[in-house]
Amino acid sequence: MFSVVFPLSLLAVCAYGSQKSCSGVGKPAFGSPGDVATISSSDGDDIVVAPTGLASSGTYADVLYFINGGTADENLNTVYAINADSGEVIGGINITDAVNMNWQGLAVQVCPEAMDGYCIYVHDVESNTVYIVQEESNPASFVSKAADKTIVYTFKTEDTGPRNSRSLFVDCQGGVYFFDDADRGRGVRLYQIIKNDDNTYTATPKFQLNIPTVTYGPVAASLSHDCCELVVKTEDKIYYYPWVDMMPQKEHARLLPAIINPYGQSIAWALNGSGFFTALESAPLTISFSPRNKNVPESKFSLGKVIGGVAMHPFRELAGVAASRKHPGILYMISDETITDVLVVQMCGGQAISRYSNIDDKVFSNVDWEDIAVGPSFEGMPGSSSIYINDGGRDSGGPENIIHILPETDDPYVDIEFYTCQHIHYRYHGRHFESHAVMVGCDGEIYVFSYVRNFGDPVNVFRLINTDGHNYAAVVIATFPNPSLLPGPKAADISSCCDEILVKFRDGVYKYSLENNDVARAFLNDATSLPYIPEINGASVAITTDCNAYVTIEDQGHTSPAPLKKYERISCCKNNTAY
Predict the structure, then answer these.
(1) Which of 32, 118, 249, 256 has the most CB atoms within 10 Å of its CB?
(2) Based on the domain organization, do 338 and 201 belong to the same domain?
(3) What gap in Å lies between CA 64 and CA 57, rounded to an integer?
């Protein structure tokens, strides 16, 4: 009935031995998650299905286990087995001496010392307890038995930080680990449960790293059965880390394709390492699978590093950033709060070097500026490139739906006062609509995006087509679902190399490949989720002039410099070594 697989971990572990060589690990490529089944039970079965933990069998390739979260008033102390192909609940282990205060993590790995085979590890994060039961030889049955081992752990007295957790994973030596749950994934600690000389257990912090998310996290983690690869899930991201010497290699972290869902708190490697599963905790109770696929392009960008702080005075809120096309290393920034100047910033260090000033605020107004772009010179403008400012926000009586256009100056280090500029007015079916993001193609075409409020709402991509003088029609050329838990998009950019489009939300940056300036076709393909440290007050993205990086900036209030982050493109290499 079931497919038996001898996993690499079994072949690599000798008498509770060491981790196998993990050559080739470190350059992962995975396809986007795809639904493979819906969890279901036979009619009349009284089975609760709200997965808060997921794990693959250590023996059978087509068997998964899941657990439900609980409270002290519930008795959800069963680990259920499901057929990974159909989603049908086929069996379960009722742990008779367990109490489900709040089960939030599940793993299957070699049993602790003095036990043979594979064991199921269940993490109760409320009672600081790990229940361990041996995997049944026939998972397609319902059995009741006491835990083979129960670990109750405490924290060190001096450990005063947050202790919430929603994860668990186990290594090939039976070591038990979990991450704590941190705001926005900042300063997440990895704990290992250590046995003391007096047979008590202590959760000991081993490592601290940032696992960026827009909410709290992580919500789940899974170590591959060969103990070489760790995947960590937040509500909006999935991160990959090579696992070497019982530590995640944070400098080799990668962002994997993920589908945002606040009700998905589970992740589990497939037994054979061909990909990993995720599951939803609420209806529809779908199981998704992310296949390993060498043909999927990697994000090829490193996690961002702060390269400077932009002193914004008199700006109160940064609304957009764009890279100069004439002057490599120069950025333009705007505010969305009445100020009609353009701040000129040197990317190295984030130092403001000059300003484009609107003389007497008479040339154009700022109702609610939301984004800025640089592209080929607009018709009638001097020079080879122009600056495009989108006044499309809804604050202060907007949206105005106006693009203000200025020529790029020849000397960015000198303050410039503008007496004239171009304005174009755009409408969709003659009506105003809210738009934050603007980008300009290498062929001079101007594009704006609709601004949507909810996850999954359709985002329209508009091309602006001249209809009469300064009046433009916004024509829909592409649509894609909002991938964010927050309203957006907030910004967009087309590279000066004409081969990439970046679209920014507050909780993610997404890349679309561009060919032959065909923007509509670019959005027909799935986006690549890029590395990004979430910025709740970050509304900007720009590809650098040399196309070798992108930058974001987070507004932290007008009294503090705004952190400018740079995400470097990773050079490709053809060798197959791990790092």
Answers:
(1) 256
(2) no
(3) 6
- Domain shared by 123 and 250, yes or no: yes
In a domain, 303, yes or no: no
Give the CATH number for residue 225. Answer: 2.120.10
CATH of the domain at 427: 2.115.10
Q: Which residue has the higher pLDDT, 190 or 164?
A: 190
**Residue 259 gets which letter from DSSP?**
-
Q: Which long-range contacts (CB under 8 A, 24 or more apart) does 14-22 make?
A: 16/110, 16/113, 16/173, 16/174, 18/172, 18/173, 19/171, 19/172, 19/173, 19/226, 19/227, 19/228, 19/246, 20/226, 20/227, 20/228, 22/226, 22/228, 22/229, 22/242, 22/243, 22/244, 22/578
pLDDT, position 255:
81
Looking at the fold, whether 229 and 340 belong to one and the same domain comes out as no
End-to-end CA distance of the chain: 40
Contacts of 182 (CB under 8 A, 6+ apart): 162, 188, 189, 211, 216, 217
Instruction: Name the strand (E) or helix (H) holding 387.
Output: strand 385-391
- Number of domains within the chain: 2
Rounded to an integer, the average pLDDT of 503-508 is 90
Do residues 105 and 222 both lie within one domain? yes
pLDDT exceeds cutoff 70 at 19: no
Question: Does 553 map to a domain?
Answer: yes
Task: Give the residue from 4, 2, 5, 21 showing the smallest Cα distance to 13.
Answer: 21
| Percent of the chain residues topping a pLDDT of 90 | 58
Higher local confidence (pLDDT), 6 or 431: 431
User: Percentage of the chain with pLDDT > 70?
Assistant: 87
Would the pLDDT of 73 be above 60? no
Q: Is residue 2 part of a domain?
A: no
421 and 526, same domain (yes or no): yes
Q: Which tokens go with 41? A: 């039970």
Among 291, 323, 344, which residue terminates a domain? Answer: 291
Among 88-92, 505-509, 531-535, the range with the most confident prediction by mean pLDDT is 88-92
Same domain for 261 and 316? no
**184 or 25: whose pLDDT is higher?**
184
Which residue in 130, 332, 264, 237 sits closest to 534, CA to CA? 237
Report the Cα 205 to chain-centroid distance in Å: 25
**β partners of residue 428:** 431
Say what the pLDDT of residue 573 is: 39
Is residue 324 domain-shared with residue 278, that is, in the same domain?
A: no
> Quick check: 475 pLDDT over 60?
yes
448 plus 506 within the same structural domain? yes
User: Which position has the higher pLDDT, 88 or 113?
Assistant: 88
Sequence length of the chain is 579
* 3-class DSSP string for 143-197: EEECCCEEEEEEECCCCCCCCCCCCCEECCCCCEEEECCEECCCCEEEEEEEECC
